[in-house]
Amino acid sequence: MEDLVAVLLEIEKKAWNANDARDVAFYREYLTPEALVVSPWGVLDRERLLRDIAENPHELPEYTVRDEKVVPLVEGSAVLTYTISLGGQTFFVSTVYTRKGGRWQAAFHQRTVALPGS
Prior knowledge:
By secondary structure, the chain is an alpha+beta fold. The chain has 3 helices and 6 strands, in the order H-H-E-E-H-E-E-E-E. A 6-stranded mixed beta sheet has the order 2-1-6-5-4-3. A hairpin with a 2-residue loop joins strand 5 and strand 6. The longest helix is centred in the first third of the chain and has 19 residues. The protein is globular.
């Protein structure tokens, strides 16, 4: 199980870095065609997210990730959860990964703002 945490967390960190670099090509490979992202700004489908990444004028602040956990689902899928702190805010994050053609892709990603004291 620990290996799966490390594998998925490495992919997740690449996604955060690709977001900062506005690397839409990475996200085209990273997301499944039907992927959804739920954040404090709404529910975004894959195409909307790709547009937002390309148009985002903000740089990603330094971040820290902690409390990483994985819940295996059916064969070839898992949920990665963790807490991330960036830009003075803390979020609880969940990403559902599926494995197709030997590679992991994100099918669903959610960020929930942590309440003060969480």
